[in-house]
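Title: Request for sanity check on Aspartyl/glutamyl-tRNA(Asn/Gln) amidotransferase subunit C prediction

Description:
We are preparing a figure and want to confirm that the structure record we downloaded matches what your pipeline produces today. Could someone re-run it with the sequence below and paste the raw structure tokens into this thread? We only need the token string, no images.
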Amino acid sequence: MSITVKDVEHVANLARLALTEAEKEQFTGQLNAILKYADKLNELNTDGIEPTSHVRPMVNVMREDKVAESLSIEKVLLNAPDEEDGQIKVPAVLE
């Protein structure tokens, strides 16, 4: 499979990109080089290799949830630009 200038023009049209003729030729060459490399990878013997979604094993890197003391409403409202009835007041976004 190879990419033609017509394929590049089609994708550029879908992406609403205006490409010059030089850019079309450049992208055609670059995309064909990528496909050529992908074909080279198909030569590898992958028999007995289990499919994976990640190269490295995934582990949970997030910290454990722990109950902790929160800020008081008074301290939170000190940082608010405006306050009304114990709540942060923000400008209306709908008319």
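Thanks, this matches our download. The mean pLDDT is 90.
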